[in-house]
Amino acid sequence: LKGLPLLPSFGAGAAITSILVTFIYWLFVRCQSLGNLRKELRLDVVWKGAAAGCVWNVGNICQILAMDVMGMPYGIAAPIFQCALVVSGIWGIYFFKEVVDRKTIRVFWIGTLTLLGGVVCLGLNGPGAA
């Protein structure tokens, strides 16, 4: 199997894992009881998180479709799609001013250059490279 038929299992795995990680964090890191978790879960927040997850999964679907159309293997496509994080980071740093610490911004740009270097290397040496 490859492509869209794998998406339901990916979604189920992501949902189960996120629930387990939340419970583990709540019980062992925050050292709280599950009764307290029930009190803190608010419906207005939960549905917004679920909606954000649905939008994120639509992006995954588009990513899979684009890979099939371009005939690009996942190992090459995934780092290129991660460049979206760079665009989001630039918006957060320079437009929304979410990060102002110079050291943090410097680390962001070092990571960005590392990512772009990897994308270039994959493009030059990946499948179909001459």
Architecture overview:
With 130 residues, this protein is mostly helical. The chain contains six helices and no strands. Helix 5 packs antiparallel against helix 6 (102-125). The chain is globular. The two termini are 28 Å apart. The mean pLDDT is 85.
**What composes the largest sheet?**
none
- The best one-word shape is globular
Q: Into which percentage range does the β-strand content fall?
A: under 5%
The helical percent reads over 70%
What value does the Rg take, in angstroms?
19 Å
Note the total helix count. Answer: 6
Q: Which regions have little confidence, pLDDT < 50, spanning 5+ residues?
A: none
Mean model confidence by pLDDT = 85
Q: Which structural class best describes the helix and strand composition?
A: mainly alpha
Terminal Cα span: 28 Å
Order of helices and strands: HHHHHH
Summarize the structure.
The chain is mainly alpha-helical and 130 residues long. It contains six helices and no strands.
Keywords:
130 residues, globular, mainly alpha, single chain
Furnish the topology, listing elements before pairings.
Layout: H1 7-29, H2 34-40, H3 43-70, H4 74-81, H5 83-95, H6 102-125
